[in-house]
């Protein structure tokens, strides 16, 4: 019985996804609108030298989409003229990525990293993870969206007022609750 329980817990870990403390923000933006993917490097690294310009990089899993070091910047293919992290905001700690004229192909998971020199004389940089943002792009017409929003808000009210409905905010909590239940059940099935 113990082996079956262990295999079940292992499957729960795999199915609930990553159990890291990494946070991911989920955003949905309509086609042709602008999106601001949030990022603040001061929450991660507050001791960056004041004379050093922050070096920020935004990537998807397949490519670098934007990079800024001082006035120098790189805009990835397909993002030219539509993407920026304003330099004045970056110096204050705000590394939010501004994406204009959003297209269907922009839907992806974006990650921001701060590139920090390892030592004053070193040419190599260390990449420090800051934020992960999953961007979804909605291309449905406005009139359909407003009707769906009304239905969704009614459905949310029904779910909130229904008894026995549990919403788990994260895979970590889901995993923890299910593990406790399984361990509790094992005590009754297979007592010591």
TrEMBL record:
<keyword id="KW-0812">Transmembrane</keyword>
<dbReference type="InterPro" id="IPR051713">
    <property type="entry name" value="T-cell_Activation_Regulation"/>
</dbReference>
<dbReference type="InterPro" id="IPR036179">
    <property type="entry name" value="Ig-like_dom_sf"/>
</dbReference>
<dbReference type="GO" id="GO:0007166">
    <property type="term" value="P:cell surface receptor signaling pathway"/>
</dbReference>
<dbReference type="GO" id="GO:0071222">
    <property type="term" value="P:cellular response to lipopolysaccharide"/>
</dbReference>
<feature type="signal peptide">
    <location>
        <begin position="1"/>
        <end position="20"/>
    </location>
</feature>
<keyword id="KW-1133">Transmembrane helix</keyword>
<keyword id="KW-1003">Cell membrane</keyword>
<dbReference type="InterPro" id="IPR013783">
    <property type="entry name" value="Ig-like_fold"/>
</dbReference>
<keyword id="KW-0393">Immunoglobulin domain</keyword>
<keyword id="KW-1015">Disulfide bond</keyword>
<protein>
    <recommendedName>
        <fullName>Immunoglobulin V-set domain-containing protein</fullName>
    </recommendedName>
</protein>
<dbReference type="GO" id="GO:0031295">
    <property type="term" value="P:T cell costimulation"/>
</dbReference>
<keyword id="KW-0732">Signal</keyword>
<keyword id="KW-0675">Receptor</keyword>
<feature type="transmembrane region" description="Helical">
    <location>
        <begin position="168"/>
        <end position="189"/>
    </location>
</feature>
<dbReference type="GO" id="GO:0042102">
    <property type="term" value="P:positive regulation of T cell proliferation"/>
</dbReference>
<dbReference type="GO" id="GO:0006955">
    <property type="term" value="P:immune response"/>
</dbReference>
<keyword id="KW-0325">Glycoprotein</keyword>
<keyword id="KW-0472">Membrane</keyword>
<dbReference type="GO" id="GO:0009897">
    <property type="term" value="C:external side of plasma membrane"/>
</dbReference>
<dbReference type="GO" id="GO:0042130">
    <property type="term" value="P:negative regulation of T cell proliferation"/>
</dbReference>
């Amino acid at each position: 019985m113990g082996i079956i329980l262990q295999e079940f817990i292992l499957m729960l870990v795999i199915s609930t996804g990553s159990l890291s403390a990494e946070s991911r923000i989920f955003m949905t933006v309509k086609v042709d609108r602008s999106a601001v993917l949030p990022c603040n490097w001061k929450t991660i690294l507050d001791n960056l030298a004041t004379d050093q310009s922050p070096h920020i990089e935004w990537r998807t899993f397949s490519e670098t989409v934007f990079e800024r070091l001082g006035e120098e910047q790189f805009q990835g293919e397909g993002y030219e003229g539509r993407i920026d992290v304003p330099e004045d905001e970056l110096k204050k700690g705000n590394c939010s990525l501004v994406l204009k004229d959003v297209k269907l192909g922009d839907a992806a998971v974006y990650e921001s990293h701060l590139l920090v020199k390892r030592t004053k004389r070193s040419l190599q940089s260390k990449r420090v993870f800051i934020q992960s943002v999953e961007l979804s792009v909605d291309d449905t017409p406005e009139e359909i969206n407003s009707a769906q929003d009304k239905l969704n808000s009614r459905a949310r009210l029904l779910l909130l007022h229904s008894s026995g409905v549990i919403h788990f905010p994260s895979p970590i909590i889901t995993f923890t609750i299910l593990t406790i239940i399984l361990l509790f059940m094992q005590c009754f099935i297979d007592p010591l």
